[in-house]
Amino acid sequence: MEEAQTTQFRLIECVCAHFDGRSLLSSDLGVTPACGRPETTQKVEAVLADFFGTEGAALTQGAGTGAIRAMLSAALRAGEMLLIHEAPQYQTTQYTFETMGLNLARTNFNCLEELQGALAGRSDLQFAYVQHARHRPEDSYLLGDVLRALRQADLRALTDENYTVFKVPEIGVELGADASTFSLFKLLGPEGIGCIVGREDIISRVHTMNYSGGGQVQGHQALDALRSLALVPLLWAVQSMVVDEVAARLKGGEVQGVRAAEIANAQDRLVLVLLDEPIARSVVEVSARFGAQNYPVGANSRYEIAPWFYRLSGSFLDASPELADYAIRVNPVRAGTDLTVDILRRSISAARSEL
Fold this sequence. Notes:
The chain has two domains: 2-230, 3-Layer(aba) Sandwich (Aspartate Aminotransferase, domain 2); 235-353, Aspartate Aminotransferase, domain 1, CATH 3.90.1150. The model has no long low-confidence stretch (mean pLDDT 95). The chain is of the alpha/beta class. It has a seven-stranded mixed beta sheet with strand order 1-7-6-5-4-2-3, sandwiched between helices. 40% of the residues lie in helices and 17% in strands. The chain has helices spanning 2-18, 39-52, 63-75, 91-99, 112-119, 143-152, 200-209, 219-229, 232-251, 280-287, 314-319, 337-353; strands at 56-61, 81-85, 103-107, 127-131, 156-160, 179-183, 193-198, 258-266, 268-275, 308-310, 327-331. It contains twelve helices and eleven strands.
């Protein structure tokens, strides 16, 4: 909690360094001559670049997916080679790889020796793409170690920080990556807003490629995202505390029908629950009767306050399809431990009775 307070205070210091009191309550629209986008948006980008210690920042439409597309389009040309982890990729990211016609070189980021071997003598590789959150349960790589190996081989690194901002001590650009992306919609911001922070050559190209009035993040959207961001560190700290408590109680055998429970960074930090019986789909479905949400709007968006009970992600299921009927994700979101555990207990009981 103390660390979350420090993060919040530092963000507000950055805000006050770039905004005066009046401009925090007003905003503009459109493509201004000085910067090619709303001046308010430019100021918010300066705050984010300052906070993450980067040369620049760019706000984008399309939330996290849009930011990833913009970053990749700015850094690479169609048909170029890109190094990625040998695991199922997030679906929309895979589609971006395909539509750009990128040639993908795959290696195991979990093993530094394999990674270093894959990098040896590869003059055709200039960029690597690293997803900070886990692709699958068995992933164990540390982002800092992977980025260090990439730098030693003179590769530039692009990282996907969706689900990790304010949940890890440092994101990719703070560990040496050239650019990092994340969704501000996943950080309580307005719909469709994403962010790229990183080196000036990548950020400036993002802005150049987006020189259209209709493609801009308008000033009021940027301010809305910034105000919302200031609330996130403490909320995430409380949520993380409840995740720990839920996992401990489930491991203690409090809920009949739960075989195992583990905390995982399965996109978000949550509890992976393994059930005794193949009733995972039914548990998810009936949990909605007791108040749980089953279909995230934006994964920790401003619209989500009740606990999530939902299936494993597509990339997790691609790697471990046998878990589809036995495992679910449980995230308390804004709820407390008692309610989250109670909904799970009632959902398992209801699913069993309907077999």
